[in-house]
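Here comes a specimen:
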Amino acid sequence: MKHVAQNIELLAPVGNFTCLKAAVQNGADSVYFGASQFNARASASNFSLTELKEAITYAKLRGVKTHLTLNILMKEEEFEEAILLATKAYEFGIDAIIVQDLGLAKFLISHFPDLPIHASTQMTIHNLEGALAAEKLGFKRVVLARELSLDEITYICHNTHLEIEIFIHGALCICYSGQCLFSSLVGGRSGNRGKCAQPCRLPYELIKENNHSKINLDKGYLLNTKDLCGLEYIPSLIDAGVTCFKIEGRMKSPEYVATVTRIYRKYIDLYLSNQPYIINETDKRELALVFNRGGFSTGHFSSSPNKELIYREKQNHMGLYIGNVANLKETKSHIFVNLKDSIYIGDSIQSEKETPNYTVYELIVKGKNQDTANTE
């Protein structure tokens, strides 16, 4: 018999209005986005006050809930302006506000008692004691730290009345749920103020000093975490009592939002339908095609150490391996490829040794123009 939460919510990231449409039209129950200030993705397009009202109205008309991210640490002189923004969002009909700053959270809980306030993952709530403290303060939901195992998540779910939200797909920090001072230290840009420079995505050398000499032990993108893909854990997490599955990616493209939302909607519904839970490899391929950093990992859900957490060869989107270059003309107007996977007109391809991408405008197979080329 399944232990299933009453409502399983799929929460999708929205960096602009096009992403909002992509999320809503591909099965999101709720979306989260930032306004022009006070959110942890300052580099995203985000929403002005006018756009914020339009976004809330668009989602509400389609039965989709909206969450506003006010999830940075506040300076004292910013407090009044943050309250004004929260008030406007409340008047527009926002369904919840995600908060990191405890002072801001306490004010909102006291002055907007009918507005759910969610504890951001950047509060680093990683055990039952933290969850119970948030519950006592009046939070409606906790977004747990991303470093928790399934067993730890289950224990918290079974011992609190809070709604429990966890990240199910997307980028992971090398640090503890965003509590990082590295960006501030080396670049003067604070991750806790929404301006992380992502130093963990840079190349490094691991050096051992010995008797005044230096030995290079390793080099590469040594802090670069693979993105999380939690498809295989959906049944266990639902049984554990998780309320909401959150997709990371407010800086990602509408295509990413649409693809990831659609696939996770499919598998949540599949498990709740009591049909056999079988993951189609084509769906995993689609997820990798839209964004992956050297493949995926299951993050920290397992109780065993994740030895596949880091991809040291490259820090950004890898795409999928399609084959080897067999020959090319000097002008690079034609590239001859031994294919290991299918390719289509309009695809973007990249050579491992080069930075620029190339768009496929023409495919010639056995002397004839085709729309697609296969491995045969």
Q: What stands out?
A: Residues 323-373 form one domain.
